[in-house]
Design goal:
The protein is built from 1 helix and 28 strands.
């Protein structure tokens, strides 16, 4: 807050100003559990405190080919996408009161998440005459990014092969495409369910960052210049900011929900290494890193 010849800092509701008078910290009540970090690689998902220390008696969950994950606060549930030799799969598990990751279950989704793609292979016989064989390449995951609506439990997926964004109900038994026009290489996705907003990035002929309603309505571009390959997205739900990483420009930038007040956060080679890991940062109990 600006004052005559100076300024004064203040914090959003639910946060308190710290002793340095410049930073804010979430208010907690006695008995509240500390913030946690969910971390995933291709083999497992594990939970730590924000300083990286282990949570006692909480073992990692074994996975196979984890591609993306999100957390449903309402049900204290982790959900993730994983790839196998034959199929893409959606899994969920409970993370209840720091007692461990349990009740792991596969969600049968009413969409193909992964498929094999044929390619033509030219061979030469003993008489040097060519013949053609149709081979199938290893399965490729159509969906590499997902987000959970923590109010309704709906799933949102970015289909990079069919160039669309589709949503599925809480039980994933019914799905509908919500964005597909003017998409050429959709990548990152982030939701603000409390504001009813969905943000996504795309880089085809034109690289852009867009915003729409959770049903795909009221779609519009909020950034469409000085971008090349915007990939990972994350939101500051308190300050209503959108962060994205551009792997080609080696840069992380931020704008507000209307695409204004744009500025650079990080520039340099570091960005390429963290693009696939800095995806979504939650504002409340659980943070995640995938």
């Amino acid at each position: 807050m600006n004052t005559l010849g100076s300024y004064r800092c203040s914090c959003a509701d639910g946060f308190s100003l710290q002793a340095n008078r410049r930073s804010c910290k979430a208010k907690t009540d006695p008995g509240d559990r500390p913030p946690l970090l969910l971390t995933a690689n291709l083999k497992s998902i594990w939970v730590t405190y924000l300083n990286g220390s282990s949570v006692p008696n909480l073992k990692p969950a074994d996975t196979n080919g984890t591609q993306a994950l999100d957390f449903l606060h309402r049900d204290e549930t982790i959900c993730w996408l994983q790839t196998s030799k034959t199929a893409g799969q959606l899994w969920c598990a409970k993370l209840t009161k720091l007692k461990g990751i349990s009740e792991k279950r596969q969600i049968r989704i009413a969409q193909n998440l992964q498929r094999e793609y044929p390619h033509l292979h030219i061979c030469t016989a003993h008489d040097d005459l060519p013949y053609f064989t149709l081979l199938f390449s290893p399965s490729t995951l159509d969906v590499e990014h997902m987000a959970l609506d923590w109010l309704t439990g709906n799933f949102y997926f970015v289909d990079r092969v069919n160039d669309r964004i589709f949503a599925c109900g809480e039980k994933a038994d019914a799905c509908v495409t919500i964005v597909e026009l003017d998409l050429q290489n959709p990548r990152g996705i982030a939701l603000d369910p409390s504001a009813g907003k969905l943000f996504f990035s795309d880089y085809g002929t034109v690289a852009k960052l867009e915003r729409c309603g959770l049903d795909g309505s009221e779609r519009g571009r909020i950034v469409e210049s000085r971008m090349e390959q915007p990939t990972a997205l994350t939101l500051d739900l308190v300050r209503k900011l959108v962060y994205w990483a551009d792997t080609y420009l080696d840069i992380i930038e931020v704008v507000d929900y209307d695409g204004k007040n744009r500025h650079t956060i990080i520039r340099g080679n570091l960005v390429s290494g963290i693009t696939n890991t800095v995806q979504k940062i939650h504002h409340s109990e659980v943070w995640k890193h995938s």
